[in-house]
Amino acid sequence: MLYLSVIVLIPLAAVAVxxxxxxxRSFWDAISNAVALQALAVTLGASLLVAAIGAVMGTIVxxxxxxxxxxxxxxxxxxxxxxxxxxTIVAGLTLLALYGPDSPFGIHLAYTRAAVLVALxxxxxxxxxxxxxxxxxxxxxQVEEAAASLGASNATTFRRIVLPALGPAILSGxxxxxxxxxxxxxxxxxxVGKVQIASIVIFADIESNAAQAAxxxxxxxxxxxxxxxxxxxxxxxxxxx
Amino acid sequence: xxxxxxxxxxxFGDFRALHDVTLVVPQGSLTALLGPSGSGKSTLLRIIAGLxxxxxxxxxxxxxxxTAARVQERCIGFVFQHYAAFxxxxxxxxxxxxxxxxxxxxxxVRERVDELLALVGLTKWAQQRPDQLSGGQRQRMALARALxxxxxxxxxxxxxxxxxxxxxxELRRWLRRLHDEQHVTTVLVTHDQEEAMDVADTIAVMNxxxxxxxxxxxxxxxRPATEFVMGFLGPVSRIDGRLVRxxxxxxxxxxRSDAIEAVVSRVVHLGFEVRIELELPGGEAAxxxxxxxxxxxxxxxxxxxxxxxxxxxxVALTA
Amino acid sequence: MRISRRATLSLRALxxxxxxxxxxxxxxxxxxxxxxxxxxVAWTWMTTPAAISxxxxxxxxxxxxxxxxxxxxxxxxxxxVRGRGRGRPLLDALLDLPFLVSxxxxxxxxxxxxxxxxxxxxxxxxxxxxIIYAVPGIVIATxxxxxxxxxxxxxxxxIExxxxxxxxxxTLGASSWQTFWRVTLPSIRWGxxxxxxxxxxxxxxxxxxxxxxxxxxxGSTLTLPLLVYQxxxxxxxxxxxxxxxxxxxxxxxxxxxxxxxxxxxPRRREAQ
Lengths: 241, 319, 272
Fold this sequence. Notes:
The complex is a heterotrimer.
Chain A: H1 2-19, H2 24-32, H3 34-67, H4 73-79, H5 82-85, H6 88-99, H7 113-138, H8 141-149, H9 154-183, H10 198-207, H11 211-236
Helix pairs in contact in A: 1-11, 2-11, 3-7, 3-9, 6-7, 7-9, 8-9, 9-11, 10-11
Chain B: E1 3-12, E2 15-25, E3 30-34, H1 41-49, E4 56-61, E5 64-65, E6 76-79, H2 91-101, H3 106-120, H4 135-148, E7 153-157, H5 165-182, E8 185-190, H6 193-199, E9 202-207, E10 210-215, H7 217-222, H8 227-233, E11 237-239, E12 242-244, E13 250-252, E14 260-270, E15 273-279, E16 285-291, H9 292-298, E17 305-309
Parallel strand pairs in B: 3-8, 3-9, 6-7, 7-8
Antiparallel strand pairs in B: 1-2, 1-4, 4-5, 9-10, 11-12, 13-17, 14-15, 14-17, 15-16
Chain C: H1 5-34, H2 39-46, H3 49-82, H4 88-94, H5 97-100, H6 103-114, H7 121-126, H8 135-145, H9 149-161, H10 164-171, H11 176-187, H12 189-205, H13 208-213, H14 224-233, H15 237-264
Helix pairs in contact in C: 1-15, 2-15, 3-8, 3-9, 3-12, 3-14, 6-8, 9-12, 10-11, 12-15, 14-15
């Protein structure tokens, strides 16, 4: 407990204190100026989009990994964890290489919001997949067979039987993806260019000694993540990641 | 070593598991704690072991008050229903565990383990892991492990509950033989009355936190102290306001004095035994149990009217 | 559900295409770009004094952070699963914080506490110890972000294994310590191993928080990720290749981690 406090709690408390150290007015100013608001909007928008896309694609990938069979599947399964294993800065660098000015494919996405999306999709890939996989594995196939015997088409069975069973896991994974996206910096710092992202703004604030503004913005980000996570967990029930 | 349980009471939150329970387990006996789920028998066993502490009352082993002693200090052997095998150790290492903890010399440990492996018939399996053994083998290993430290008492918590029926029967006979050789005071918890009667010298019948009767298998079967004990130990029929064993009921097609008239509703052939289901005056249902020979001799069919008697000497309880 | 062959193939193609674009291409690019100008050049970049000291600093930080978090993690898991205190749900919630907090916020929080103007900072400075802009800051930041992995991997295993083995050990006379060492720890070892791997991965790759708490002076407080950042922020083709070289080192380390994860993954829930 002591360890936890020293490492985690005290520093976080310090941020909270600093955020409000200039009073409520100052806190409000810090988060409602044009730069901050835009950054928050971009961050939120991107994170929500990433959570949504991640939920869909992640479920598809999980489905293929569980229900399909093909040579080398084990390798694909292992690679899902790559974003967990690879340092985010390396991810950012490669995205810069792929989609930046030197792109081998002539795609120039870097320094745009699209690049941010791709980076975040990379980083959050495992969350939904690993959340859905175990649930999909545990799913009782006989329930689906019963539905089929009663006349349900595949689409109906998926919509009414499989999806509700997977729902909590998908939501849980999406919530984690959202929370992660909101605070992500390593993969974005190289490709972000002029696009304003909350974590980059915070970083800039720290560098320019505007600690209070940085703290205020940080507190907002954390609160956002917490709220989304709590809501989605309440709705979906906890799934181990 | 004799066990004395005195006025033990234990509750878990609102649930009362044991209420003022007193029991003496004679030295060298094999006593069964018999009862349905929730009767408190496992709790009592765990209190004797020291895995639970009573809210009030005391436990004595070999005359020493161990109520305050931790489980490690009581020198007991405990066998769990689901074996509690140390999954990452071999059979040999499992059995040796208690001795290694006590820092016994290697040679001594080696010898004792070999002795026990032979005793439980697992010598060939010494280097295997528990997950490579069958359920019955795992339980024998667990027994060997418990016996390795020469405990004062051996406590078994539904040890055969997780096993197949025929393994169960085989193992409980084996346990009885082991007990006859080793003479360790043993307490066995079970909900299976056939098992208790097959194995134990003394049976303590428990029901909702209390002991209803303590006696030999014969005693509790033939002279049950309460309706519950009677019903738990064997089948019961209610005739004429009395509780009677179906196999004590005599059935005759001819009217007799003191006999009750009944209509046969069903005749069920169960191999060697035949069960006659009767409808008594007043609409009550009862059963009689006859051997096949008896039934054939009487030639009873459904709808027949018969005359039913039970031996007065075999007094059953008043319902 | 019996899905048509066509649908199966389409789904498979979609999933694999997505994964290739998202995962494989980036990885391929790292290696391609690193060795674009030949093995020798790449090697030179990997063996500059800055690169070597960055490598060792990264390793050092991991060597400190991982064991500390492992000991904490096992203890914490035991408290959460076998303990009886009332603060456990709170502890459980708090353990999620490092996952939720943005790395920059972590960096900021450490500056506020241990920096020159910080709550404890003043005391440290007076003792001549610098935390921020020095190695200790990096270590603390890394410990923060990689804190929960071991706990989160060990706790479910503890639950699944159950405590009957520990009860059995007690009946056989084992003390609490003996029970922990001989029975509990072996039964959770795969969970611990997997948690250690995850912790190590996180520690090696940390960039956001350390970006904030370290200075940019090469050699003193640059970890490998920081080196990648620094080199790629410089202008010039040479710089970018050097950045790739450092990135390759990290990529190789993470592939080793990935291998460990793949091997240990299936075993971690076994109650062995």
